[in-house]
Amino acid sequence: MTDPRLDRLLARAPALRLTIEPADLEHYGRDWTRRWTPTPLAIALPASVEEVQAIVCWANEEGVAVVPSGGRTGLSGGAVAANGELVLSLERMNRVLAFDEVDRTLTVQAGIPLEAVHNAAREHGLAYPVDFAARGSCSIGGNIATNAGGIRVIRYGNTREWIAGLTVVTGAGEVLQLNRGLIKNSSGYDLRQLLIGSEGTLGIVVEATLRLTDPPPPTNVMLLALPSFETLMQVFAAFRERLVLEAFEFFTDRALHHVLAHGAQKPFDELHPFYVVTEFAIGDEKQEAAAMAAFEHCLENGLVSDGVISQSDAQAAQLWRLREGITESLAGYKPYKNDVSVRISAMPAFLAETQALLSREYPQFDVVWFGHIGDGNLHINVLKPEAMADGEFVGHCEQVTKLLADALARHDGSISAEHGIGLVKKPYLIGTRSAEEVVLMRGIKHVLDPNGILNPGKLFDP
């Protein structure tokens, strides 16, 4: 190593894998936002809690900032290293450590991919119910850092509901064992919940004990075509009233256009302006009849125009691809993304206001909408015209995001539903959180990360 600081790091942790290869610096120094040029000092790939602790202690001594890194599938710039930080990638810490049959918990290292957790739970006849399209590449540590939600929040809730315990290395280099898998624990502040959603600014999650549950019941998937935006929440109400919903996902004709261009199969002969993919329990004939009754009610009342129900697992997967393939199909367009949420009861008014806002402000752009309508989460993707410069495009989108943030404030919503604040949404934190809350958040960071080495500049400025 040419940098003496890195030599001192290796002297402290001789077995640590450390790289300064240009390709590695670029690969590990960014996330899916692709808006910042990565310039990390180096990439550290520890294999143990002790090595993570050694890195943090070294960083405090040397005054080097550290960016914790999982699968880097984030969309808010939370894993970007653009200012000479050391990237601490947890990808080598990817093992299942323990399974407890009585407690029905799975203890894993933070770098394990979500899909591997699903597979491990399945081997024991159980399920880890948090799920989303990036399951093969996102990591549990990253899910915890952003309190990830996904497609089944309507039934199972966010990541924080499934974390029984955490092992964390704080910004001061201390190793904390949080909650230790307890179901009941009224012994003061729950620091475990404080770390969940903290975006790597307070501590580095190195191990997690996950709660497991029974596998979901048999389900069917239905794709619905909607004639207008206004019927969306009425369709949701009709299905929620009659069925046990596992998921209720919405997307537009523009989203379908891009997924079909990416290789998915066309679901209907005719095109429709809006679509819903919903999955629901079907344990017996009564539940199957309820599903058809919900569809027929919506069809008779003009709330849906067409629909198809899966007849096999393969067809269910094809229908889900129409929703889960959206993000990948848009990646080449450098989309500007908004990930917002409001209460479900506020969704109709917010949707109407937002649709008018985007139609007015983005007439020249391809705007792709999709989201987890069943839990009040909407994703808005604005695609950059090929001829427009990146800076001009982002500048225009940021002006519109200010208007969107104002609309969210009026509806008591959040500028970040499940992707975190990171760098992208930092200017809009005030509006989702009060000034008093932000002051308290800064104070908490100072206690757990006194020298400000962990992911500085993310969430709020130092």
Automatic annotation (TrEMBL):
<dbReference type="InterPro" id="IPR016171">
    <property type="entry name" value="Vanillyl_alc_oxidase_C-sub2"/>
</dbReference>
<dbReference type="InterPro" id="IPR016169">
    <property type="entry name" value="FAD-bd_PCMH_sub2"/>
</dbReference>
<dbReference type="Pfam" id="PF01565">
    <property type="entry name" value="FAD_binding_4"/>
</dbReference>
<dbReference type="InterPro" id="IPR016164">
    <property type="entry name" value="FAD-linked_Oxase-like_C"/>
</dbReference>
<keyword id="KW-0560">Oxidoreductase</keyword>
<comment type="similarity">
    <text>Belongs to the FAD-binding oxidoreductase/transferase type 4 family.</text>
</comment>
<dbReference type="InterPro" id="IPR036318">
    <property type="entry name" value="FAD-bd_PCMH-like_sf"/>
</dbReference>
<feature type="domain" description="FAD-binding PCMH-type">
    <location>
        <begin position="36"/>
        <end position="215"/>
    </location>
</feature>
<dbReference type="InterPro" id="IPR016166">
    <property type="entry name" value="FAD-bd_PCMH"/>
</dbReference>
<dbReference type="Pfam" id="PF02913">
    <property type="entry name" value="FAD-oxidase_C"/>
</dbReference>
<keyword id="KW-0274">FAD</keyword>
<dbReference type="InterPro" id="IPR051264">
    <property type="entry name" value="FAD-oxidored/transferase_4"/>
</dbReference>
<protein>
    <submittedName>
        <fullName>FAD-binding oxidoreductase</fullName>
    </submittedName>
</protein>
<keyword id="KW-0285">Flavoprotein</keyword>
<dbReference type="InterPro" id="IPR004113">
    <property type="entry name" value="FAD-bd_oxidored_4_C"/>
</dbReference>
<dbReference type="InterPro" id="IPR006094">
    <property type="entry name" value="Oxid_FAD_bind_N"/>
</dbReference>
